[in-house]
């Protein structure tokens, strides 16, 4: 829920933001504001820019996208309500901050739910992914597409993690999601939720011992400088989601809405091409920077996740989604 302060801030921002009046027409030039916490040049940033290029070409410059990178408009959790209210038009955001708002987003966020990157992409590109995107609508958001978030693994400043026992007592930063808190607790560590932008300093000062993320984020934030041990648990392949404010989307006519949806889907192909290249480059930089990388036997970590599934897969719809994902070949 919005606090009075958040609501007043949002209302003020709305008043200061040029509004789209009525359905977009051939005469109305619209520049959509899109937000992302990642730095300029990151695959998600460039994918949304590519989407903007497609829209600009297909509407003769009538619809454009201005991408605000590097958390210029706020950290992920801070921007959700702004997007729901139409202060921000588009938002590329991790699935985790939506877990407590939209129940079905917990399913692709489950640890070890996907067997591989190819499995995740096939699931999220199909009917299961479309069903989850539709669940954003009641929350004043339009789910447009899923982007890759890579394989998330644990890193820390203390020691290599080979078994869950190696994590016992560690203070591990997690996203602000009950599921990620439960995941880390199930492995015997102490979960510390905090915004992504605070992680480097917290690692540097010892407020936390470690965190978990993918190769590009571990590299681009330079977390590898202050947290040298990167253990390839690959516990999460949860995708990220590109959403649009329903208030902004509804101001376009049906033809423009179709163009926006199509351009978003096409941007997924570009994002994955950029992502695959970026993962390889980031891994090379991390290794060259002196990080110590180790692989793990995953089964003990998988076995430890039963209480997480028991807690978060609670209703018939979610159980059906899990079964359908596991049955996808």
Could you please describe the fold and organization of this structure?
- The chain is globular and about 60 Å long.
- Helix 2 (43-58) runs antiparallel to helix 11.
- It has helices at 4-16, 43-58, 76-84, 106-109, 117-124, 127-134, 178-186, 199-205, 215-220, 246-249, 254-288, 299-303, 306-312, 316-327, and strands at residues 30-35, 63-68, 90-94, 141-147, 152-156, 171-174, 190-193, 210-213, 229-236, 240-245, 292-295.
- It is 43% helix and 18% strand.
- The protein has 14 helices and eleven strands.
- The two termini are 39 Å apart.
- The protein is of the alpha/beta class and 329 residues long.
- The strands form three sheets. It has a five-stranded mixed beta sheet. The chain has a four-stranded mixed beta sheet with strand order 8-5-9-11.
């Amino acid at each position: 829920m919005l606090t009075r302060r958040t609501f007043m801030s949002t209302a003020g921002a709305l008043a200061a933001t040029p509004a789209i009046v009525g359905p977009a027409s051939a005469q109305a030039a619209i520049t959509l504001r899109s937000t992302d916490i990642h730095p300029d040049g990151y695959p998600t940033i460039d994918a949304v820019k590519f989407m903007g290029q497609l829209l600009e070409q297909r509407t003769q410059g009538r619809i454009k996208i201005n991408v605000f990178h590097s958390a210029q408009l706020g950290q992920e959790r801070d921007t959700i309500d702004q997007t729901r209210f139409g202060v921000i038009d588009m938002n590329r955001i991790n699935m985790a901050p939506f877990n407590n708002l939209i129940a079905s987003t917990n399913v692709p966020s489950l640890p070890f739910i996907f067997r591989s990157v190819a499995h995740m992409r096939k699931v999220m590109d199909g009917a299961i992914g479309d069903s989850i995107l539709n669940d954003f609508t009641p929350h004043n958001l339009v789910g447009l597409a899923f982007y890759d978030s890579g394989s998330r693994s644990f890193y820390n400043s203390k020691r290599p993690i080979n078994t869950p026992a190696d994590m016992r007592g560690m203070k591990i930063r997690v996203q602000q999601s009950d599921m990620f808190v439960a995941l880390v607790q199930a492995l015997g560590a102490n979960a510390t939720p905090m915004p992504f932008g605070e992680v480097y300093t917290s690692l540097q000062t010892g407020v936390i011992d470690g965190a978990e993320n993918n190769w590009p984020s571990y590299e681009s934030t330079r977390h590898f400088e202050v947290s040298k041990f990167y253990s390839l648990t690959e516990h999460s392949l949860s995708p990220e989601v590109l959403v649009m404010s329903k208030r902004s989307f509804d101001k376009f006519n049906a033809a423009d809405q179709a163009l926006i949806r199509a351009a978003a889907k096409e941007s997924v192909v570009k994002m994955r091409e950029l992502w695959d290249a970026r993962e390889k480059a980031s891994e090379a930089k991390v290794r060259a920077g002196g990080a110590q990388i180790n692989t793990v036997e995953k089964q003990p970590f998988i076995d430890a996740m039963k209480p997480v599934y028991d807690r978060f897969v609670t209703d018939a719809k979610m159980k059906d989604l899990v079964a359908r994902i596991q049955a996808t070949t």
